[in-house]
Write a structure and sequence with these properties.
Blueprint: H1 10-17, H2 21-33, E1 37-39, E2 45-47, H3 50-60, E3 67-72, H4 78-87, E4 97-99, H5 100-107, E5 116-119, H6 124-137, E6 141-142, E7 149-153, E8 165-167, E9 170-172, H7 175-183, H8 189-207
Parallel strand pairs: 5-7
Antiparallel strand pairs: 1-2, 3-6, 3-7, 4-5, 8-9
Helix pairs in contact: 1-2, 5-7, 5-8, 7-8
Length: about 210
């Protein structure tokens, strides 16, 4: 969605996404049935109606499927937590990415926020190490409720890190992933999602 609508084949898509070609083929078939893909030359497919697809995707996507570890970080608000994160010496091999309001603050700030969400690695062994790292680096206190920082085990572990980028020294999920996470987030998420869509995503889709 974030790139020009160049026709692509099954194996090319699978390689870019790091997923099984058989699964890609099934998804392509379903998207064709829903008129989101058209066939191009040499068994390649091309995405159409991208904005409608995003809205349909939002209806099925649920960020709460991620397993959340809730903590308290000593900070007055979400901005201060993000600023603390910038000062942390994060190991190069550590897989992580900010999303929801913390990620939006780095990409296109709009709403006041109190909570920061960080995706953990999909690999269980790497995830355990990552949790330990964040707990020590930020001096986190484990909470049952009323936390202000959330470490998220990704339910959609193939897609959440796709297209992540470094912004102001921190990794942030792609604009599409950020939009999906924000849309159903209860604390001013839809407001921030609309701002992100108009500023970042809509111009890209209009170019298509």
């Amino acid at each position: 969605m974030e790139k020009p609508p160049q026709p692509m084949g099954v194996r090319e898509i699978a390689k870019k996404g790091g997923i099984n070609p058989g699964w890609v083929s099934q998804v392509i078939q379903r998207l064709e049935e829903l008129n989101y893909l058209v066939r191009a030359e040499e068994e390649r497919v091309k995405l159409v109606r991208a904005q409608h697809l995003i809205e349909d995707w939002v209806e099925f996507y649920k960020y709460k499927k991620n397993n959340l570890h809730q903590y308290y970080c000593h900070a007055k608000d979400g901005v201060e937590i993000v600023e603390k994160l910038k000062k942390v010496q994060i190991p190069k091999g550590l897989a992580y990415a900010l999303s929801i309001q913390g990620g939006a603050y780095l990409i296109s700030p709009h709403a006041v926020f109190q909570e920061v969400h960080i995706y953990l690695p999909g690999n269980p062994d790497e995830r355990i190490k990552a949790i330990s790292f964040w707990e020590k680096a930020l001096r986190l206190e484990k909470m049952e409720r009323s936390g202000n920082i959330f470490l998220m085990e990704p339910y959609y572990h193939y897609s959440v890190f796709y297209g992540k980028r470094e912004v102001k020294g921190l990794n942030v999920v792609s604009d599409i992933q950020l939009y999906l996470d924000l849309r159903k987030y209860p604390l001013r998420g839809e407001e921030q999602a609309e701002h992100l869509f108009n500023k970042k995503i809509k111009p890209l889709l209009e170019k298509r």
